[in-house]
Amino acid sequence: MPPPDPTPTFSLVGQMLRAPEEIARVLNSLVMRGEPIISDLGGGKLPFRSRLRFVDPARAYLIVELSPDDAANKALLARPRATFHAEPGGWRVEFAAANPKPTSPNEGAAGIRLRFPEIVAGHRRRADERVPAPQQQALRCIIDAAGVMPFDGTMENVSKGGIGFLQYDAAISLEPGTVLKGCRIENPSGESIVVDMEVRYSQLMDLADGKQVQSSGCRFLNLSAEETARIEQLFGLKQ
């Protein structure tokens, strides 16, 4: 039997899947391919490495295998929810699942049961999907400034298509579909703009100095023509 095709039979480029049947189709494809899944616990210091074993046909739950690292299993079970990612072929598939619990004896080999995800995000890995862009200055961003717990980061690599990349503390985790309200982007001269953004995906990145940060691809939401022009001005996108 030939090995399964590593690329999905459906397009996930830049998509946020919310329909349960579409989410189940993606997750079942990971099960059939035996794709490794990873959850970067503890800011990436304690990665949980596993595989998806089962997706409930009624779309109520899923089961993942135990990690070989018992400390990672305990860390996952101690959390209310976790974000997982897989990289089949040139793709990155990301989803968050809540309420991790040990499986019961009648569910076969020991594993961890989690609630069925509400969103699955998919995209090409950045190395594959983006051509080199002119260097932009990273601007300070007060992330989720209109939310409950704002935090500092930077915004860079903004495209005219309305996508930009946030970098922030590795200990913070933003799930796909998270809406960040009232983010304030500021340049060194004090000029700023306030925008809402939706997180498309997040991943840990290694900086040149060895430090790790979280990087989230984000889409600007509901921009007016004036706000679009303002962002292009701040990031030097105007011709």
Explained architecture:
By secondary structure, this protein is an alpha+beta fold. The protein has 4 helices and 15 strands. The protein is elongated.
Summarize this structure briefly.
Helices cover 15% and strands 42% of the residues. It has 239 residues and is of the alpha+beta class. A six-stranded antiparallel β-barrel has the order 10-11-12-15-14-13.
Number of helices: 4
Query: Main sheet, how many strands, which sense, barrel?
Result: 6 strands, antiparallel, barrel
CATH class term of the largest domain? Mainly Beta
From the N-terminal CA to the C-terminal CA, the straight-line distance is 54 Å
**Main structural class:** alpha+beta
Fill in the keyword field for this structure:
elongated, 4 helices, Pnp Oxidase, Chain A, 239 residues, 2 domains, five-stranded antiparallel sheet, alpha+beta, Thrombin, subunit H, single chain, disordered N terminus, six-stranded antiparallel β-barrel
Describe the SSE topology:
Blueprint: E1 15-17, H1 20-33, E2 36-41, E3 46-55, E4 61-65, H2 70-77, E5 81-86, E6 91-98, E7 101-102, E8 111-115, E9 120-124, H3 126-129, E10 139-143, E11 151-156, E12 163-169, E13 179-186, E14 192-206, E15 212-221, H4 225-234
Antiparallel strand pairs: 1-9, 2-3, 3-4, 4-8, 5-6, 6-9, 7-8, 10-11, 10-13, 11-12, 12-15, 13-14, 14-15
